[in-house]
Specification:
By secondary structure, the protein is mostly helical. The protein has two domains: about 50 residues, no CATH class; about 180 residues. Strands 1-2 form a two-stranded antiparallel ribbon. The two termini are about 15 Å apart.
């Protein structure tokens, strides 16, 4: 019974192996390998290729010592500096000053400054004329009084007093009209100055805008010219770098060409095929021993 139990355990192992490893009863199949032999006439070339490849692989890294990127040109730097200062035109400050002047309030000092001195001269002339006319009137009054033997009388004094009073009023009226005319002229002049200041501010602002636009166009043209110059310099640097890469990789390219030519000019030797059966695994050996023991047991029992 012990031997039978051991045989059953062996058969369980066989079943388990067949379950995980594949189908039952199947042994390991034959395996085929292929070998290709290099033609004898190509061996020297293969050795030469290997030696050259070894030499190239042992070379030290050679860095590129020249510049890779083109820097900013003088035109680009000048354009950049110009962009920074384009908003600082003095015309803007001058226009702002005129704007404040045009929007300001009129003061007594402004009126006094704007009043023309010639207006007072005109007023003085009118006053002298009035005084002269009054003097002539007084002389006629005295002459008439003398003819009427009333010279120095109360009536003459009353008439002369009235004439002098009229002269004073006339002179006052003349001065008042002169002052009013001077004031009106000053007001008109100041108003004209304010309007001129506002118009001047608008004109300067427009001029400053045109000047800024023209300056912007000039700077943009300068920047474009600098960019074209930089791009041309960059193309030259790229060309030099590509030349460096071609010179550096030239031995590798030649070796690749050499190797491809060697492989192409002569075929390889015919391949050889080998078929063999792999040795049984430990599980297969154990299963075989178990089956042999089982057969012996059955023969012993007469089954």
């Amino acid at each position: 019974m012990i031997l039978f139990a051991k045989i059953l355990n062996i058969r369980w192992l066989v079943d388990a192996f067949c379950f995980y490893g594949g189908g039952k009863g199947g042994g390991g199949g034959e395996q085929t390998s292929y070998t290709t032999t290099l033609a004898p006439q190509l061996v020297p070339y293969a050795k030469d290729i290997a030696q050259r490849a070894q030499g190239i692989a042992s070379e030290e890294y050679v860095p590129y010592g020249a510049e890779r990127l083109a820097g900013m040109t003088d035109a680009q730097r000048q354009a950049l500096e110009g962009y920074k200062g384009i908003e600082t035109s003095p015309l803007y400050d001058e226009a702002a000053g005129l704007m404040r002047r045009g929007a300001g309030q009129t003061t007594a000092e402004d009126i006094s400054r704007a009043m023309s001195p010639y207006q007072q001269a005109v007023t003085d002339i009118a006053k002298r004329k009035a005084t002269s006319e009054s003097q002539q009137a007084l002389e006629r009054i005295r002459s008439d009084a003398a003819k009427a033997d009333a010279f120095g009388g109360s009536r003459q004094a009353l008439i002369e007093s009235q004439e002098l009073s009229n002269l004073g009023q006339r002179l006052s009226d003349i001065q008042t009209r002169g002052d009013q005319a001077a004031f009106d002229n000053a007001q008109a002049q100041l108003q004209a100055e304010r309007q001129a200041a506002m118009q001047g501010a608008q004109g300067l602002s427009s001029l400053a805008g045109l000047q800024s636009a023209a300056e912007m166009q000039r700077l943009q043209a300068m920047e474009r010219a600098g960019t074209i110059e930089q791009a041309d310099a960059q193309r030259l640097l790229n060309m030099r770098y590509q030349d460096f890469l071609r010179q550096r990789d030239y031995p590798k390219e030649q070796l690749g060409f050499y190797s491809s030519m060697v492989r192409g000019i002569a075929p390889m030797m015919p391949s050889q095929q080998y078929a063999y059966a792999p040795p049984p695994s430990p599980f297969q050996q154990l299963a075989g021993a178990g089956l042999t023991a089982l057969g012996a047991y059955k023969a012993f029992q007469g089954v």
